[in-house]
Amino acid sequence: MAQTASNEIERGSWGSRIGFILAAAGSAIGLGNIWRFPYVTGENGGAIFVLIYVACVLFIGLPVMIAELTIGRHTQRNAIGAFEALAPGSAWKLVGVLGVVTGIGILSFYSVVAGWTVGYFVKTFAGEFSGSVSAAQSEAIFREFVSNPWVAILLLGLFIGATMYVVGGGVSEGIEKWSKILMPALFCILLLLTAYALTLEGARKGLEFYLRPDPSKIRAATFAKALGQALFSLSLGMGAMITYGSYLPSHQRVPLSAFQVALFDTLVALLAGLVIFPILFSMGLNPAGGPGLVFVVLPTIFGKMPLGWLFGTLFFVLLALAALTSTISLLEVPVAFFVDEKGWSRRRAVLSMGSLAFVLGIPSALSQGGISALSSLPGIRIGFLDLMNAVFGNYCLTIGSLFIALFVGYRWGVEKALAEIERGGGRFAFRAVWAALIRYVCPVAVIVILGYILVTGQYF
Ligand code: TRP
Question: 235, 284, 318, 394: most buried by Cβ count inside 10 Å?
């Protein structure tokens, strides 16, 4: 009895329906939308990539999100415990183990980039971009900033520390409080920036790159990257949504919630592209500029646009906070596991997992010029951060999603999953469509995409 009571206090539950949507949206919306989406789009051919990305969100991301939330709500367990509950003693719990490991892996490099947003907030606030900043100057500022090893590690530590502080405080108060104000504010400022970007001379060329598909730009890796980006952006494939779903009350309709989160998340990403590409082309920058893209592109307008200092400062604060609501969900996955399954105190789980992510993040933090050996790894010619991003942020999520789809489609079974989806609510209008997507479309598409990558060897 005492055990149950303390468990409930430890686990917490969502205060309200809108609280859940906002927290899940808070997990989904983050650097994935505003930092990762534009640069991956820029590197992979623009509009054609966007098209494939949207298809991946609809036909793979959305059904997998419904699957994850349903597993979580049904089992009321963490990423590993959920598989153990539904398939006791089987190897399926390895999917959860992969998720926990992936969560720590993503948290490590994600927090490095999140640290940059904090640094850029300070820079913008201090007026560093208030004059006219050319593309070359902006590039130089970025390079100098990220190559300072001490600053990079300090900001990484600061960001993981902030994440640990919030996750240590429990679920509903910690996460909901933030997300309610943040996401709508970020959305508004993106709208404002879009409006300005579209007035720039040369914006047209950016729009063309972003919105007019050129099929000749497709390579084998395009599909794998679009899929990985969709899963990353929606926080899928590692049990974050299983963990979030476990805090979901049974009267809440899973498919509707999933749809709203996916819609909002995709809108924010598309909007970020609509800000970045017109500015990028009007400044004559290279769309394939890599992970520094957003940090190089945006500061070039803050000195020019009306109230640019204010909007710039606001933008980076909101981006940092959006990143925080995402890192919270990344840390929550391993923490929920150790609290639920290993009987650890929340404090102990937060301290140990947070420290682990910090240590693992150090090579990423030093890979942007701090230590040259980490900037271009032997054999693969990409930096440590890019490697972490590709391994954990792309392939682990893709493999995780594949197994989640297979688990729901064939082990747990779509009938049982549908019973859970419809428990406490009305009939799920797209039950047959969802079942077909989860059983056939998702697994086949993912296997084909991964197989193609293996055959062509275009991993990165
Ligand atoms: N989706 C977040 C973003 O777009 C990142 C993120 C948070 C994530 N939690 C996750 C990605 C879980 C994959 C899995 O910034």
Answer: 235
